[in-house]
Amino acid sequence: MVDAHAESASARTLVLDVPGWGGHRAGQHVDLRLTADDGYTAVRAYSIGAPWDPDAPTRVEVTVQRVQGGEVSPYLVDEFAVGQRIEVRGPVGGWFVWAPGAAGGAPVLLLAGGSGVVPLVSMVRERRRRADRTPFRLVYSVRMPGDALFLDELTGPRRRDDGVDTHVVWTRGVPPDDPSGRPPGRLDLRGLARHGWPADLRPLVFVCGPTGFVEAVSRMLLVLGHDASAIRAERFGPST
Q1: Contact indicator for 155, 163 with CB cutoff of 8 Å
Q2: Residues 6+ apart with CB under 8 A from 233
Q3: Sign of CA pseudo-dihedral 156, 204, 170, 192
Q4: Most C-beta atoms within 10 A of its C-beta, which of 65, 113, 163, 239?
């Protein structure tokens, strides 16, 4: 690891230098493998949070959310230090990816639950890096302000993306300066219809988050008339 920085009180981005890295696509992930002194190993999958950079072709940025009681994530968030080594396998995944021109340049709808925002931010950053103008909408469901990742980049003064509309759904606690006036609560059909793209625009849809979030949102997308073949989903469980 060559660098690291906190994204929240419980999440950290690890900047890895991986010799021989051949590049990756926005939305892919890697497997990180730790080996203890006694030979015990543990492998976990983590999303890549930044697109491949031809000016730094061996750099890989991985954002890790600490899971209480987890075996690997607490170590990576709290103890893993710059200069230490870790095994990396990847990139993994060829379906949950986006690049300019995907699906004939269709508008893109990104639906994130919690740390599921990481691969979707990689897509937003890839769009920015390539100076692409594909219309993006991101609906980000997160518990409360202290849990949100990349919020300043997506909604704050540093936001630089013309054509990327971001809407945050606070499920447990709303920040005092939130302009929506919406009480905390889960993303519902009405909110998805309001902040997502209409189905008749035939958007390409990416959904990432905990299993319950992905299943609920996928059902709502179908109710709203979205084509199932245009919905790409990735989910994760609570055990990492």
Answers
A1: no
A2: 96, 206, 207, 208, 214, 218
A3: positive
A4: 113
Count of other CB atoms within 10 angstroms of residue 21: 18
Count of other CB atoms within 10 angstroms of residue 3: 12
Residues 126-181 have pLDDT tens digits of 999 999 999 999 999 999 999 999 998 998 765 655 779 999 999 999 998 887 78
Question: What gap in Å lies between CA 38 and CA 59, rounded to an integer?
Answer: 29
pLDDT at 239: 45
- Cα gap 25→29, rounded to integer Å: 9
For residues 147 and 144, what is the distance between their CA atoms, to the nearest angstrom? Answer: 6
Q: Which residue is associated with the tokens 């269709």?
A: 106
Q: With contact defined as beta carbons under 8 Å apart, do 19 and 102 qualify?
A: no
As a whole number of angstroms, the distance between CA 151 and CA 38 comes to: 40
